[in-house]
Amino acid sequence: MIRAPLRADASVLENEAMGAANRRLRLLVPGFEGFEPGQFAMLSPGAVGGALRFDPLLPRPMAIYRASSGSAGAEVEILYKVSGRGTALLAQARPGEQIRFVGPLGRPFPDLRSDRVALLVGGGTGVASLYELAVRGARLRAGAVRVLLGAKSARDLMGHADFSSLAVAVDVSTEDGSLGERGLVTEPLARWLADEPASDVYACGPTAMMRAAAALALRFGRRCFVSLENPMACGFGVCLGCAAPRRDGGFALVCRDGPVFDATIVDWERLA
Amino acid sequence: MIRAPLRADASVLENEAMGAANRRLRLLVPGFEGFEPGQFAMLSPGAVGGALRFDPLLPRPMAIYRASSGSAGAEVEILYKVSGRGTALLAQARPGEQIRFVGPLGRPFPDLRSDRVALLVGGGTGVASLYELAVRGARLRAGAVRVLLGAKSARDLMGHADFSSLAVAVDVSTEDGSLGERGLVTEPLARWLADEPASDVYACGPTAMMRAAAALALRFGRRCFVSLENPMACGFGVCLGCAAPRRDGGFALVCRDGPVFDATIVDWERLA
Amino acid sequence: MSVDTSVDLGGLRLRNPVLTASGTFGYGAEFAPFLDLRRLGGIVSKSLTLEPRSGNLPHRIAEAHAGMLNAIGLENVGVDAFIREKIPALAAEVVIVASVFGREIDEYAQACERLSESPRVAGLEVNASCPHVRSGGIEFGQNPQLLASLVRAVRRASAKPLLVKLSPNVTSIAEMAKVCEAEGADAISLINTLQALDVDLETRRPKLRNGLGGLSGPAILPVALRMVWQASRAVSIPVCGIGGIMTAEDAVKFLVCGATAVQVGTASYLNPAAAGEIADGMVDWASRRGVSRLADLIGTLQPWS
Amino acid sequence: MSVDTSVDLGGLRLRNPVLTASGTFGYGAEFAPFLDLRRLGGIVSKSLTLEPRSGNLPHRIAEAHAGMLNAIGLENVGVDAFIREKIPALAAEVVIVASVFGREIDEYAQACERLSESPRVAGLEVNASCPHVRSGGIEFGQNPQLLASLVRAVRRASAKPLLVKLSPNVTSIAEMAKVCEAEGADAISLINTLQALDVDLETRRPKLRNGLGGLSGPAILPVALRMVWQASRAVSIPVCGIGGIMTAEDAVKFLVCGATAVQVGTASYLNPAAAGEIADGMVDWASRRGVSRLADLIGTLQPWS
Ligand SMILES: Cc1cc2nc3c(=O)[nH]c(=O)nc-3n(C[C@H](O)[C@H](O)[C@H](O)COP(=O)(O)OP(=O)(O)OC[C@H]3O[C@@H](n4cnc5c(N)ncnc54)[C@H](O)[C@@H]3O)c2cc1C
Ligand SMILES: Cc1cc2nc3c(=O)[nH]c(=O)nc-3n(C[C@H](O)[C@H](O)[C@H](O)COP(=O)(O)OP(=O)(O)OC[C@H]3O[C@@H](n4cnc5c(N)ncnc54)[C@H](O)[C@@H]3O)c2cc1C
Ligand SMILES: Cc1cc2nc3c(=O)[nH]c(=O)nc-3n(C[C@H](O)[C@H](O)[C@H](O)COP(=O)(O)O)c2cc1C
Ligand SMILES: Cc1cc2nc3c(=O)[nH]c(=O)nc-3n(C[C@H](O)[C@H](O)[C@H](O)COP(=O)(O)O)c2cc1C
Ligand code: FES
Ligand code: FES
Is C302 within a domain? Predict the structure, then answer.
């Protein structure tokens, strides 16, 4: 069920460092009633702290990692990596501070099919978009999902402990070999596609990774869903800033028509 | 001795609420070697926290309240009132965070004269500019200074405890009568000017208060020094933004030629 | 204290002076989860062309200090789909201003004509910041003669209240405003975005695929206030102020500088309820100060003695 | 890796491309406590007039989002005091560019002549953003004919490297740049501040006593980059880029967009050592990327395929 988005002043419950530049933000979001796997929220780091200031100006799209409801409202969890100005400021938000939250936004991953194995491929912060999908897969049946996580090195890996505590198989690849297999996460993906004919791909991560995952899926004739990360200004379809070129010539809005797309409709050549 | 100003990355040692909107900021300023009464520093609240952001853009002039030297550098104390965006951000600076510091800047109050009583008149945040002068007066001789502090109400009063712990007489006026005498601080000033013929006035506070103090001093034929608070961009004489009109037709730069001026050279009519 | 918020913007009777800016509010219905559109003075649609168009390749937007750059291209559903699909999604009480552009005067005129046929279109806003095909990219709003021809043509094409939205990338906004007035425009909207460029140093390419883009947001507010003040003194038709409005105080500043109404743009991205909050905030501001009609604030900038 | 930082700005041989912007660096000596001026490419003085002048009444400055407004007026010590008192305070290695303005062409020309007599003045920068007395406030830099006459006159008055500083408040910066080139200017500096206005809502007066003022700081950077790119493609004389430069990366962006050198303005208020840090930072930036000459960066903006 796709819920209407809400705009709320969320309060920071926790904002903890997770190693390397990764952090976990826990928010109390009044009125929030749940989300579907792959949906995101817009968070305004610039507004944290009260004083009116507009640098940085735009809210940041962040995948909703996990949510649970409590008495005072729902708790929403975000995993993020400090990589630019926006996330550097987000890292400074202290418990009790308010942050503007708009969500849940976007179209989720499609439901997992009961007759297939879902290969969840996450790279970098893209991992965050896949966690709820893994949770649902674990509930569905044993072996419904297999999670492939990738990162530069063990320290950078996001959400590993959470995924591992689910009843799903988790493979890890790191570029430096500091954990799991050495190399790109697309390498085990290729093997699993070969080994598991009844499988679909659900990918989120850097564009290069998703492009590669999409190409692999195509080669093996499997369905592949990707969650794109275009720069966004609004997050709900009104600025037209997040357009991704479609194969058929037009554009799709990543925030409204995505972020999750069937990989075959994306024009990977013209995607920036 | 007027020292050359320095530019330093000061680290916040403490930033504590003092009641109402008043706060005390303690900074560790590497290389700082002291200041004269009435001098100030430029603090950049926008830059606190590291992420590059320029809203608000300008540094804020703040009187140096007190300084002492320790092993890691000098400790510099600022008293400030949260009144706008700049000070609201300053209030968020946490211990350990860096803040850009340029100072000491400006021309100090003239030395107290050994044959006169110095009437130190402070209103609002202007009180902060007078503390070091009171300290020096207390050292000079008993009865060398008399401090007149004014505020809206007892809660708003700045630095009262510090002044009171010096060996100087302190009179308090509050507009609502919640502490000391009810009314404006210029009322006791008028009485003291009448009672104490051998007195000089040293005033810092809202323009209206300083204008009134200057007029009183003139009426009684006394010297009066005021510390002006014009908006500033640079603080060291290069933007020409802080100009105050002089009686003789030209302008003085508040940051370079002041902030302390002989009240008779200021054109109070044309001062905004 | 109750405050009369109504204003008349060149024949558009608005319940309050807060509209939304073209291109920042979609076609209106997108805001339904966040805001009751009936609380607004009106909404201005994304600029519409005669035929639907898709826009530029990504990247189309980039962040700047206290602002953002955009070069969306001409992406819009086209006049017909707007009338057929977008208008019916809006409650009857919502005042709809259709923004129009074209690459030739004729395209503008035809689009205006078609839009005027819809009884739901309360007024037209001609976006004169569109590059003119035959003049090598110069905008209609950058050349007085071109602008005059454009306004003349659209004025002939429609009897609805006609707003002309001016480009700020000109030497004299007053001159452009006068041209609009002379050619029969009912009001002037300004400003559109400042032409701008930013570079991605990793690739040394422009941040936007289009190269140049438009700067919007709080960064441009003081430029917009200046132009509204200059334009409103140059003409007697009303001015609709746009540029960097984030708060009710910002909006009041525009009225004080001579605007009859305002449009909220980029703010809606940060906060989808911004336009409504600004409308409410203006009432608070006025009532705290004993101002009984918002219209009394228009053009009340005080000179320094 | 060692990086060659020298550039030639219209005959001004600079040890590095970082100068300081007129009006933001006083007369140079004020920065002695913070910065060794010999680390800079050069300094540009506060704009000088033939006779000393005092400026506007306060308020002369106000803060904006990611920027500031100023209307200082013409306050400066005058050409003679500059030569007599300000120049001698600067070490011999400091490259001094004297900025000049006047209210009539003749004043400009005379000031340039006098300044040219000083062997310490390495070059002149003519500030064309000054309102022309006889043209009802329009700036020299806003009218091509006025600008041409001005440049012609100052060109005749001095053989020193001549920079013309352009106003950004124009429809076509390329046109203005071409005028300067045609009249013999050696380089173009841009941009000066964007004309702007802000209001103090408590008094409903302009925040600045002068009413209008100029917007500077990071808010204007993308507009400045755009204009530098447009101007540098329009002329073959070099361009000196100005506007919102706060970091070495900002300065590199200007070079990439076609500037041969840059000027650091408002940044020096926030951080009096900014210009030096930017000069050093450009070297770091280049050496990390294997760029052996900063001049190799000039005009290297890559097109999107
Ligand atoms: C649907 C979606 C979900 C996302 N989920 C997450 C998440 O769960 N965790 C996480 O850490 N990050 C996530 N991102 C990326 C995130 O929005 C940030 O933009 C990114 O982390 C860059 O950080 P910054 O804002 O500090 O960078 P800055 O340098 O401050 O960003 C400047 C501008 O570029 C945009 N931008 C920069 N990098 C990206 C990027 N990779 N994707 C989109 N826009 C970008 C910013 O939004 C901003 O507008 C997601 C992006 C999208 C589109
Ligand atoms: C020499 C000098 C010494 C000062 N000492 C102190 C002090 O010890 N404690 C203290 O609390 N304040 C002091 N001030 C005022 C201080 O600089 C702040 O500007 C003031 O507290 C306003 O706070 P803000 O920055 O939050 O306001 P904002 O609304 O964010 O300010 C906007 C702009 O206006 C300027 N401005 C606003 N109010 C004033 C003011 N009263 N004086 C000068 N500029 C102003 C700001 O500097 C800024 O540029 C001093 C000012 C001067 C000139
Ligand atoms: C992403 C984006 C798209 C825009 N599209 C249009 C448009 O289609 N037509 C138009 O007249 N103005 C368009 N504008 C300009 C705005 O309507 C407005 O004039 C400008 O953004 C300044 O206001 P602001 O600072 O409040 O955003 C657009 C602005 C943005 C940011
Ligand atoms: C307070 C102030 C005073 C200025 N005075 C002058 C001046 O006298 N002559 C001039 O050519 N430019 C003057 N300028 C403009 C700057 O030189 C520069 O062009 C402009 O500020 C943009 O650069 P910035 O954003 O780096 O400050 C002044 C700018 C400021 C902020
Ligand atoms: S982010 Fe605005 S339309 Fe997608
Ligand atoms: S604050 Fe810049 S000259 Fe005084």
Answer: no
Residues with CB under 6 A from ligand 5: A 232-235, 237-242, 253-255
The domain containing residue B240 runs over which residues?
117-265
The answer to whether position D305 is within a domain reads no
Within a domain: B110: no
As beta bridge partners, residue A24 has: A16, A79
Q: What is the pLDDT along chain B (272 residues), one digit of tens a residue?
A: 899 999 999 999 999 999 889 999 999 999 999 999 999 999 997 666 667 889 999 999 999 999 998 777 799 999 999 999 999 989 989 999 999 999 999 999 999 998 999 999 999 999 999 999 999 999 988 889 999 999 999 999 999 999 999 989 999 999 999 999 999 999 999 999 999 889 999 999 999 999 999 999 999 999 999 999 999 999 999 999 999 999 999 999 999 999 999 999 999 998 87
Instruction: Give the three-class secondary structure for A157.
Output: coil
- Cα B248 to ligand 4 centroid, rounded to whole Å: 28
| B24 and B150 assigned to the same domain | no
CB atoms C270 and A100 under 8 Å? yes
Here the CATH number for the domain that contains residue B86 is 2.40.30.10
- Residue D177: which CATH number? 3.20.20.70
Residue B1 lies in a domain: no
Q: Taking the complete model, does pTM exceed 0.95, yes or no? A: yes
Q: How many structural domains comprise chain B?
A: 2
Angle between helices D221-234 and D248-256 in degrees, nearest 10: 30
Task: Judge whether A73 and A31 are in contact, CB under 8 Å.
Answer: yes
The Cα C17–Cα A30 span in angstroms is: 31
H or E stretch at C254: helix C248-256
Q: Is D22 in the pocket of ligand 4 (CB under 6 A)?
A: yes
Ligand nearest to the CA of C21: 3
Residue of C60, C65, C285, C298 to mutate for D, most D C-beta atoms under 10 A: C65
Whether C240 sits among the annotated catalytic residues: the reply is no
Look at residues D59, D212, D243, D52 and name the one whose alpha carbon lies nearest to residue D137: D212
Measured between beta carbons, the chain C residues lying within 8 angstroms of B55 are 65-66, 218
Structural domain of C290: 7-297
- A231, part of any domain: yes
- The protein residue with its alpha carbon nearest to ligand 1, atom 32, reads C63
Domain annotation covers residue B53? yes
Chain C residues touching residue A57 (CB < 8 angstroms): 63-68, 217-218, 266, 270
How many angstroms separate the CA atoms of C122 and C46, rounded? 15
